[in-house]
Amino acid sequence: MEEIDKAQSSKSVSKVMTIAALAVLTVVAGGGGWLVGQLLAPPPATEKIEAAAEIAPNATGAEGIPKIATEANGVVQLDPITTNLAYPSENWVRLEVALQFNGIPDVVLAEQIHQDIAGYLKTVSLQQIQGPRGFQYLRDDIQERVDLRSDGRVTKVMFRTFVIQ
After folding, report:
1. Which pLDDT does position 49 carry in this prediction?
2. How confident is the model at residue 158 (pLDDT cuts 50, 70, 90)?
3. pTM of the predicted model, to two decimals?
4. CA-wise closest residue to 97 among 20, 38, 157
5. Are 129 and 164 in contact (CB under 8 A)?
6. Which letter does DSSP use for residue 88 in this model?
7. Taking each helix axis from N to C terminus, what angle separates 107-121 and 131-150, rounded to the nearest 10 degrees?
8. Residue 59 class from Cβ within 10 Å (0-12 exposed, 13-18 middle, 19+ buried)?
9. Among 33-42, 91-100, 113-122, 144-153, the least confident range
10. Helical residues (DSSP H) of the chain, grouped into ranges
């Protein structure tokens, strides 16, 4: 009988020790993760946000947070492009893009690029842009057209929305 009591008490002590060890390891792992995160993550760029708000005060949203696309950071958001496709012509596409300029943005060039993209979308068929591969081809074609039109002044075309109806 004594042996059974010793076995049960050692099992309960073993469970308690395991749970305690697990709790200690969890706290140590969480603290280590937080410490590594603090060491590796850059501090928030509040100075950049404040500088952008001072340069372009009308570029802040309702909450005072700067919009992504501002002339202060070299990004120009184009007006939405809505046009029908070449085939089938009853399908419409809506595309919103933003252009990242290398240096000071050129609004006239951005408008020319806007018109060029709209003209290009009128020549595309639905079969060409179906699926992930078709969308990637469309992105590559638009990036190539922008590179040719801007002579390298636009470094990136950022797709904000793409809807086919």
Report:
1. 52
2. very high
3. 0.57
4. 157
5. yes
6. S
7. 140
8. middle
9. 33-42
10. 2-40, 46-55, 107-121, 131-150
**The pLDDT value given to residue 139:** 94
Q: Which residues contact 156 (CB under 8 A, 6 or more apart)?
A: 99, 100, 143
Q: In the structure encoding, which two tokens stand for residue 51, read together?
A: 């500088």
Kindly state the tokens that stand for 124.
Answer: 């595309």
In the predicted model, is pLDDT for residue 96 greater than 60? Answer: yes
Other CB atoms within 10 A of residue 28 CB: 10
Handedness of CA 86, 88, 93, 98 (dihedral sign): negative
Token output for 14 = 């073993």
Q: Which two tokens stand for residue 151?
A: 């002579």
- For the record, the structure tokens of 88 come out as 């089938």
Distance in angstroms (rounded) separating the CA atoms of residues 165 and 64: 35
Measured distance CA(60)–CA(63) in Å, rounded: 8
The token pair that represents 74 in the structure block: 């070299």
